Amino acid sequence: MITFDAVTKRYPDGTVAVDALSLEAPTGEITVFVGPSGCGKTTSLRMINRMIDATEGRILLDGVPVQGIDPPTLRRGIGYVIQQAGLFPHRKIVDNIATVPYLLGWDRKKARSRAMELLERVGLDPAMGERYPFQLSGGQQQRVGVARALAADPPVLLMDEPFSAVDPIVRTSLQDELIRLQAELNKTIVFVTHDIDEAIKLGDRVAVLRVGGRLAQLADPKTLLSE
Ligand code: ADP
Ligand code: ADP
After folding, report:
1. Where are the beta strands (DSSP E) in the chain?
2. For a 10 Å CB count at each end of the chain, is N or C smaller?
3. Each residue's pLDDT tens digit, 106-164
4. d(CA 135, CA 48)
5. 174 lines ligand 2 (CB under 6 A)
């Protein structure tokens, strides 16, 4: 479980991106942060894996303040997926997926077979492992991004607008796949989007933020639907 305990982020220029945010993202659930551009979604997400540190308040991972964990150790337990998958262009898909296992010193064969298994998990043909990122469509690259984030089986998955740049039909299938995957994997997922329909579809709970970084509402998506 991830806990935000009165978390504030003020950037050096004085911008308050996140303002006294308190909420919980339970294990086994998808917690969605939704709101307009600039409301502090990405900042909130990046404070979890310490790409950014909070100015005030604490973020706890299963009760342990992340600020006390050194970033490399912390990130071993946290998969991170961004909008344009961010794959290494000169590495084959299989090696892209195995990035973290290689860093962790896994045996090369074991890392590659894990990557192949994950390709199937995210709905891609394992033969794609031998291709390079430019040979894949945008939607396929996002699937690879998800596979890469899952490679070392981290308990936490952070997803920042992962499906926003793909066309609507592909987006729908990626959303369905994520719901299916989460039913198997039971991760703590924090998912950021500006799209309220996506938030309602994916979220077990939905945190609605407004510009200035304040929590407007923490809702069960079924309630949002009926409003
Ligand atoms: P969102 O992801 O919801 O679009 P962000 O977390 O990216 O929002 O940004 C929240 C606010 O913080 C915005 O006003 C943005 O301009 C500001 N901001 C983001 N990064 C920085 C930075 N490095 N320095 C100053 N202000 C920033
Ligand atoms: P989408 O409609 O999902 O965006 P694309 O039209 O980009 O898909 O690609 C369709 C198919 O062609 C995909 O299976 C993709 O892997 C393959 N493909 C796209 N670009 C290349 C390329 N440069 N070399 C080889 N195969 C490619």
Report:
1. 2-10, 16-25, 30-34, 56-61, 64-65, 78-81, 156-160, 188-193, 205-210, 214-219
2. C
3. 999 999 999 999 999 888 999 999 999 999 998 899 999 999 999 999 999 999 999 99
4. 33
5. no
Could you tell me the distance, in angstroms and rounded to a whole number, from the CA of residue 136 to the centre of ligand 2? Answer: 5
**Which ligand is nearest to the Cα of residue 165, counting in written order?**
2
What residues contact residue 169 under an 8 Å CB cut-off, 6+ apart? none
pTM for this predicted structure: 0.86
**Prediction ipTM score:** 0.71
As to burial, measured by CB atoms within 10 angstroms (0-12 exposed, 13-18 middle, 19+ buried), residue 93 is: buried
3-state helix, strand, coil in the chain (%, to 5): 40, 25, 35
Q: Ligand 2 in contact with 147 (CB < 6 A)?
A: no
Q: How far is CA 86 from CA 25, 89, 213, in A?
A: 25, 9, 26
